[in-house]
């Protein structure tokens, strides 16, 4: 088996980054002070600016940490709250997302931002949200759902897709193409 110098350099560089990045991320996370927001979310939880996750709980910081910055999940990560960018295959936030989740599957208890994925889910979105995906689900949605299948219990906004359901609508529960409730 013959190796060239460039291939060996790439292998050594990737190996070095594999050791350096988690340590640097851990140090970065420790230097970010906890963030608090009045009225809930980020309330008193320890916080980090960077989270790397293989499969919760195999991640740099525990699940009870808030992330104010960037989180990378391959394949699955879970944290308390997130303010910033959430990238991965399966992204799970047990509290508030203020920012952008992008992955195959995205889950937030409260969404104040954008979810982009095949499957998106949130319980509430009082400050406004946008869900873009094949399947979008929510309990109380304030904002927009765009996908093939859109579902929510209550809505103050618009659904655009093939199948649109607002189960507690004052007017129309199901409407193809466009459904709205204000």
What does this structure look like?
This protein is mostly beta strands. The chain has one domain (5-181). Helices cover 15% and strands 57% of the residues. The protein contains one helix and ten strands. Strands 1, 2, 3, 4, 5, 6, 7, 8, 9 and 10 form a ten-stranded mixed sheet that branches. The radius of gyration is 19 Å and the shape is elongated. The model is unreliable at 10-41 (pLDDT under 50).
In short:
The protein is mostly beta strands and 182 residues long. It contains one helix and ten strands.
Number of strands: 10
Mean pLDDT: 84
Distance between the termini: 67 Å
How many domains in all?
Answer: 1
Count of discrete alpha- or pi-helical segments spanning 4 or more residues: 1
Shape call: elongated
Helix content: 10-25%
Could you describe the largest sheet, including whether it forms a barrel? 10 strands, mixed
DSSP strand (E) fraction? over 45%
Task: Return residue spans where pLDDT drops below 50 for at least 5 consecutive residues.
Answer: 10-41
- What is the structural class? mainly beta
Radius of gyration: 19 Å
Order of SSEs:
HEEEEEEEEEE
């Amino acid at each position: 088996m013959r190796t060239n110098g460039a291939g060996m350099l790439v292998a050594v560089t990737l190996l070095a980054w594999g050791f350096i990045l988690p340590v640097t991320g851990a140090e970065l996370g420790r230097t970010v002070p906890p963030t608090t927001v009045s009225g809930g979310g980020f309330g008193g939880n320890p916080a980090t600016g960077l989270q790397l996750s293989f499969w919760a709980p195999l991640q740099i910081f525990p699940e009870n940490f808030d992330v104010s910055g960037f989180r990378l999940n391959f394949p699955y990560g879970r944290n308390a709250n997130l303010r910033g960018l959430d990238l991965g295959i399966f992204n799970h936030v047990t509290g508030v997302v203020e920012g952008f989740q992008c992955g195959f599957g995205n889950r937030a208890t409260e969404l104040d931002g954008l979810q982009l994925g095949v499957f998106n889910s949130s319980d509430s979105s009082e400050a406004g949200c946008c869900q873009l995906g094949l399947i979008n689900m929510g309990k109380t949605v304030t904002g927009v759902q765009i996908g093939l299948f859109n579902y929510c219990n209550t809505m103050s906004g618009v659904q655009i897709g093939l199948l649109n359901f607002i189960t507690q609508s004052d007017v129309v529960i199901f409407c193809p193409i466009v459904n709205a409730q204000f």
